[in-house]
Design goal:
heterodimer; A: alpha/beta; Rossmann fold; 10 helices; globular; B: alpha+beta; MetI-like fold; ATP binding (chain A); P-loop_NTPase (chain A); membrane (chain A); ATP hydrolysis activity (chain A)
């Protein structure tokens, strides 16, 4: 079968003092090609761990990840990743960063050049392609990271709070860009965020995770991502269901946070 | 003490003078008022006027206290007394007193010591004369030629009319006249405030030495050979040290076995000052080029290894993850991520290593060498050629500073992303 399958993933980290922490417990998920899923949860719910396992940076204690039918055993170009920040190569120009994936495959300029320039156009960085990374603003750097990931043509794009370090205005523009790229490329995308609004807007499916141990708490299917493709995101936010869902999820997460705080107080 | 006081006075005076002069031209903004920038280290810029005044002050003080001909003589500190001086003394021989004059010729250190000829004069005390080199003093038994001297019970009771007794002293216009317990006069001409050339030659003497040695050479080698040999040793020693140290550091940063194997060696050798290795290296390799280069190799090796190791360890793991998920192989990650990422650290290490090597080579040449900047100043000091010593120190400083400037320039050119991620 095609798509991404997450089967009964559990992850336990050993602590230096001999104990262990159950970061994920029995997480099972199926993603069809072209699905856009956002993952939301209080801090410590294992969402980044889950993403790292899917990317292949971590091996799960139990369970397996399957991609297009074969089991995942490590990082691969079929699963691209966009990090929050700090993942660009400062010693390369913007264009060299975007062309990194194809170059590592041994492609020549003639093969990847046109596609790289097209992607730079899409993310609006054509005028900056010869600039150094440290000359760009935070939003521009994330657009480079997006373009670099797309240039490699992965089947799944994993995003680990890619917009978390950006200011509110830049963030809104970037959210539209992500939606546009999702529709144009038809990639499967998993996006981790700690912003409820972002999760609503950028989640065709929205997964709420609960902490200790990290597990799937509830899943939503939402219309907002499809609406956001053609509409202004501020219009989408006026949708009658938007606020209702937002309140519901916020309350859910607040309850979880309070439970954590309560537990910490008891133990203290 | 006086010199320090003058220095501080110029420091303070210069500050207020520059402040007064620039006050009218500077805008009164927040920066000038230092209200918001106080405590902000990045807002502190060196005041170039202060730098210029500082350098001028150093040369001014140097010239002033060495009687340099480069600065007008009214700026000179009081010089040591030279020329003729006179004082008289009074002898009391059993109730009879008589005066006689002592003529002193204070001559330049390297000049002729002509004793002035004087008339004996009348009375039983006869006139004396003596010649003393600048900065020296002499004992003079003034009663030796008198008709009634110490042996006959005569005593010197006054100098220039001021009473003196054994162990006492009288200050005359050009000298201090002290009396020993036995009654001999010790004549100490005034030394002034200027330094003796033996301790500190004036700047123009150092400059003329530079011209002289750069044209005629020193100890069978030209100046450029001396400096060139020192530089050659540093560069060769550093390059071999880097060629071994950087791969070693990479291996230590990437492999547990290498890390474990070399950690004790590197951690032990790092705090050993290279100077402490000089005796061992001389025993092993002698005082020739091989010994020097081995020493500098050892000085650079550990610094470069540690720099390369921390450059590898310091790679942000997300960069490696990103490269993996973009399909890079281990070798490609090494080539395109880990090596470029470690370059800033390596450049920092190289700058430190070059500085340490330059210091070490000079020290090693001080100990034993046939050519080199350190050997030049060591030999010169044995012959009390203070001007050559000073010239050598200045040249060593200039070269050391130039090396650092060059390394920083190369750093800006080759790793422009340093400190900007």
């Amino acid at each position: 079968m095609s798509g991404l399958t997450i089967e009964n993933i559990s992850m336990r980290f050993d602590l230096p003092n001999g104990g262990s922490v159950q970061a994920l417990k029995d997480v099972t998920l199926d993603l069809k090609p072209g699905e856009l899923m956002s993952v939301l949860g209080p801090s410590g719910c294992g969402k980044t761990t889950l993403l790292n396992i899917v990317a292949g940076f971590l091996a799960p204690t139990e369970g397996r990840i399957a991609m297009n039918g074969h089991t995942v055993h490590g990082p691969d170009a079929e699963r691209g990743m966009v990090f929050q920040q700090g993942a660009l190569f400062e010693w390369m120009s913007v264009r060299e960063n975007v062309a990194f994936g194809p170059r590592m495959k041994g492609e020549r300029e003639a093969q990847y050049g046109a596609n790289v320039d097209h992607l730079l156009d899409v993310v609006g960085l054509q005028d900056f392609k010869e600039k150094a990374i440290y000359e760009l603003s935070g939003g521009m750097q994330q657009r480079v990271a997006l373009a670099r990931c797309l240039a490699n043509d992965p089947d799944v794009i994993l995003m680990d709070e890619p917009l978390g370090a950006l200011d509110a205005l830049t963030r809104e523009k970037m959210q539209s860009l992500v939606l546009k790229l999702w529709k144009e490329t038809g990639k499967t995308i998993i996006l981790i965020t700690h912003s409820v609004e972002e999760a609503l807007l950028l989640g065709e499916r929205l997964l709420v995770m609960a902490p200790r141990p990290g597990r799937i708490h509830k899943e939503y299917r939402l219309p907002f991502a499809d609406l956001g493709v053609d509409q202004d995101l501020r219009e989408v936010k006026k949708h009658p269901d938007y606020n209702k869902t937002r309140e519901e999820i916020l309350a859910m997460i607040w309850d979880m946070e309070e439970e954590i705080m309560g537990r910490t107080e008891e133990s203290a | 003490m006086t010199i320090l006081a003058i220095y501080v006075a110029i420091f303070i005076g210069g500050f207020f003078a520059v402040k007064y002069i620039t006050a009218s031209t500077q805008p009164k903004d927040y920066t000038s008022l230092k209200t918001v920038t106080f405590g902000d280290e990045s807002a502190v810029r060196p005041n170039r006027a202060a730098s210029i005044i500082s350098i001028v002050t150093i040369f001014l003080l140097w010239g002033s206290f060495t009687g340099s001909s480069l600065i007008p003589s009214f700026l000179h500190a009081p010089a040591a007394y030279t020329g003729l001086g006179e004082f008289n003394y009074t002898v009391d021989a059993n109730g009879q007193t008589d005066d006689a004059t002592v003529t002193v010729n204070v001559h330049e250190t390297d000049g002729e010591a002509a004793v002035p000829e004087v008339e004996p004069g009348d009375g039983f005390a006869k006139n004396d004369s003596i010649s003393i080199a600048k900065y020296r003093s002499k004992l003079l038994r003034v009663d030796a030629n008198d008709e009634q001297g110490r042996d006959e019970g005569a005593k010197i009771v006054a100098v220039n009319g001021k009473a003196i007794e054994p162990g006492g002293e009288v200050i005359v216009d050009f000298a201090r006249i002290a009396m020993t317990p036995k009654g001999t006069l010790n004549i100490v001409p005034k030394t002034g405030w200027q330094m003796q050339p033996l301790y500190l030659p004036p700047p123009e003497k150092v400059a003329s030495r530079l011209v002289e040695i750069s044209s005629t050479g020193f100890r069978n080698s030209t100046l450029w050979e001396h400096l060139g040999y020192s530089l050659f040793r540093v560069i060769v020693g550093f390059l071999i040290g880097a060629a071994v140290g950087i791969p070693l550091g990479y291996a230590m940063g990437l492999s547990n076995w290498f890390r474990g194997w070399f950690d004790p060696v590197v951690e032990f050798m790092r705090p050993v000052p290279p100077l402490a290795l000089i005796p061992l290296v001389i025993i092993w390799a002698g005082i020739g080029e091989v010994g020097k280069i081995v020493l500098l190799f050892l000085a650079a090796l550990w610094i470069m290894a540690i720099a390369a190791r921390s450059g590898v360890s310091g790679v942000n793991i997300t960069k490696v993850h990103a490269a993996y998920s973009l399909g890079a192989s281990k070798w490609q990650i090494m080539r395109h991520v880990i090596i470029p990422n470690s370059l800033p650290e390596i450049f920092t290490g190289a700058r430190v290593a070059m500085g340490v090597c330059w210091g070490t080579v000079v020290a090693a040449e001080l100990v034993a060498a046939e050519k080199g900047a350190g050997m030049m100043i060591m030999v010169a000091s044995k012959f009390q050629n203070t001007d050559i010593v000073l010239m050598g120190i200045i040249l060593i400083g200039v070269i050391g500073f130039s090396i650092d400037v060059l390394m920083r320039w190369a750093e800006r050119l080759l790793v422009p992303w340093k400190g900007r991620s």
